Amino acid sequence: MIDSKIKIGVLGIQGAFAKHISMLKNIGIQAEEVKYHEQIDQFDGLIIPGGESTTMSKFFDEMKIRSKLIAFEKPIFGTCAGAILLSGGVADPRVNSLNLVPIDADRNAYGRQTDSFIADINLEFDPKPFRAIFIRAPKLSNPAPEVKILGTFKDDIVLVCYRNILLSTFHPELTDDSRIHRYFLEHLVAESYA
Ligand code: GLN
């Protein structure tokens, strides 16, 4: 059971943040858009949604939210650009990542021809595949040994967990399947929510 009092903040910088909020509300918990750094401390967990990681990186500074995110000790879920921004190794100098997960993220790694695609991915915690939507997705590589690989598509790592941070290179909020959000709430947020 997921406690209905759990409150998740979804960074409202860019991207499909409203879809994350409706998915969390459908699961039965509280969810709110984060616009100001002053809001951050009230949440039991955060989602950094997709968008353009270069632009979002700048917003982190303009919103004065960067140090708040780095200091946030509760669970964080980053999807697509959000995953890039949490990764340690981002080659693009325009992205000043939060460097919270020891893994490399290569932006737009599927190239122009396969800008966006839908594919069934394998989950480590559920035998039923997940139909994942990839939109100009990054590829994750060189995970440190403590990084748990939770989802793969062919040879690619598409879902990982490191301590209380979850990264997906796809957009689980754009489907009707709430298993990834539930995993975040049940395994990461519930752990730290007393
Ligand atoms: N291509 C984007 C980036 O590099 C990510 C795309 C997305 O979030 N859907 O930031």
Describe this entry's structure for a reader.
With 194 residues, the chain is of the alpha/beta class. The protein has a single domain (7-193), classed as Rossmann fold (3-Layer(aba) Sandwich), CATH 3.40.50. The protein is built from 5 helices and 12 strands. The strands form 2 sheets. It has a 9-stranded mixed beta sheet with strand order 2-1-3-4-12-11-10-7-8. The chain has a 3-stranded mixed beta sheet with strand order 5-6-9. Helix 1 links the parallel strand 1 (7-11) and strand 2. The longest helix has 14 residues, at 179-192. The chain is globular. The two termini are 14 Å apart. The mean pLDDT is 95. Glutamine is lined by residues 50-53, 80-81, 84, 107-108, 135-136.
